[in-house]
Description:
Elements: H1 2-13, H2 25-38, H3 47-58, H4 64-71, H5 79-90, E1 91-93, E2 99-101, H6 106-119, H7 129-136, H8 141-150, E3 153-157, E4 163-167, E5 174-176, E6 179-181, H9 192-204, H10 213-220, H11 226-253, H12 259-285, E7 287-288, E8 292-293, H13 296-346
Antiparallel strand pairs: 1-2, 3-4, 5-6, 7-8
Amino acid sequence: MDADKGRKNRKGRGESLPEEAADDSTQLGTLNGQISGWTADAEHRDKGKGEKFAKLKSSGQLPPYILNMYESPPPGTSARAYRTAMVNRLFHREADGSLRLRSSDPMFTQAKKAYEDKYHKATTESYTRMIFAGMFFANDDNKLQAAIDKGEVLESKGEDGEVLYSMKKIVRGVRKGAAEETTLTAAKSLSEKEYAEMAQLMDEFKISYTFSKKDKALLDDGKLPDSAVKTLNQAIAANERLSKQAAQLSQKHSAEFPNNVFNELKKQHKVSQKNILNLQHIMAFQEIENEGPVTKNSLDRIMMACAKDTSELNQAIEIAKGVLKVDQGAFQGLRLLHVVQTVQEQAGEERHPGLE
């Protein structure tokens, strides 16, 4: 009954998943000068790009410097024209029609630097318990609790009273322009068991994850070797493919799914979209957002969490497909009963009690 009610509610509302002041005046002055060139000529916003931007913005999946850039039109420019030009430039349309963030565009890398210079805070990055356990402890809550008990993981409360978790840092100076920053997190390396689990998950989605000693040295120096770029591209492609499947299932069959199946599909689709943006950010800036330069250990942790998320999205898709098969089988069975009843009535036969 509850499942039917959920289906009717979604059918009624047509719900489905989405397809998917300056401290550095010289830098911002240069940036504003470049922006003026965007809006010099009248430009119409690409509808698809506008919708993509709105969905990412409403779901909290845009980097903070992009949001800041969007909300802060330079003085003396038309806010509407500026935002239209920015959104059009932010996305690149692939050959298959899909849209990809173009955050490596010099305009956006400069905006990111300006934002970091103004708003950067030397604070420990904190996560909720479930996310922290997934990123650093392979979802093993017992190991997380043991680390908390030893003082290796810190508990704190956010502004809303929610308990957040972070870990102690080993820091070193990381030069960005003229500023010395200390943002490198010391991520614990994966165990052999965790590596085996990650390898199995990645094999399932045809993602390669092998590095030579030279590659590992490059990673620990904050640089992405070609093998890492290949891995990131494969992971992005796998998530884009599965996200597209999830969106198509939702758009075509959302009214047929029970609430729990639909909500899980929606949840995993959103996680996948966030992972795509995170992986694209690593490739564009050779850093893990809000953490610092990429290292072998930090990339291991990110890819482990991503592999698990990808597997969960695939499982949600398969469950949704299974629901459709069951529903289709029941529908075909009812049709067969109806045909038998009709034939019996036309022949003047007594109806079988089982068909009443």
